[in-house]
Design brief:
single chain; mainly alpha
């Protein structure tokens, strides 16, 4: 029992460290521009597909655990964690090599004019609401995912289920809204 408590203490320190370090590192990496790299336009649809696959696997993981298939549930969740890490790396790489795409910038000049803004109308508010909630929850879900995973790993299944009921909808929202944001901004990506 002592060993389990010590392990949990170590894991909790890692969870806190990663929950702070990942968003800070991403924010820092957003300030870096890699010069003379051709635009990596294949990355946004790639990480949108990763988000879609993550959403499908999260649903599948829940279905599997309800069927009592713990092994497949665990495998799907591990894949979702790996996909989330891959997404993050690709997302940072894209933004380190490309200028941000502006929602509504129909002529792709990097500036959203009044006419362009008027043309998208209320959709810009919907887009920014989805984008901002997606970003905030993608940061907030990190400790939830890690705590949920560690509780299962330590065999604390009652506590795992309790927090998974919070983690699942947040993680699913982040994955699904990642796809929605991509499809909303897609028309404004440079060719």
């Amino acid at each position: 029992m002592e060993n389990l408590a010590q392990k949990e203490k170590v894991y909790n320190r890692w969870i806190i460290a990663l929950s702070i370090a990942i968003p800070v590192a991403v924010a820092f990496l957003f300030t870096i521009r890699i010069p003379n790299v051709p635009r990596l336009g294949f990355l946004p649809p790639t990480y949108a597909a990763i988000n879609a696959l993550t959403a499908i696997l999260l649903f599948s993981a829940v279905i599997q655990i309800k069927k009592g298939n713990r092994k497949l549930h665990e495998r799907y969740i591990k894949i979702c964690i790996v996909l989330s890490v891959i997404f993050l790396v690709l997302y940072v790489l894209y933004h380190a090599t490309s200028d941000s795409t502006k929602f509504g910038d129909a002529n792709l000049d990097g500036i959203v004019s009044e006419a362009e803004s008027a043309a998208v109308g209320i959709y810009k508010y919907i887009y920014y609401f989805i984008l901002i909630s997606h970003i905030l929850l993608s940061v907030g879900v990190i400790p939830f995912v890690l705590v949920t995973y560690v509780r299962a790993m330590l065999g604390k299944f009652a506590l795992h289920r309790k927090i998974a009921r919070i983690t699942f909808p947040i993680w699913l929202y982040v994955a699904v809204t990642g796809v929605i944001v991509y499809f909303m901004i897609f028309p404004y990506y440079p060719a």
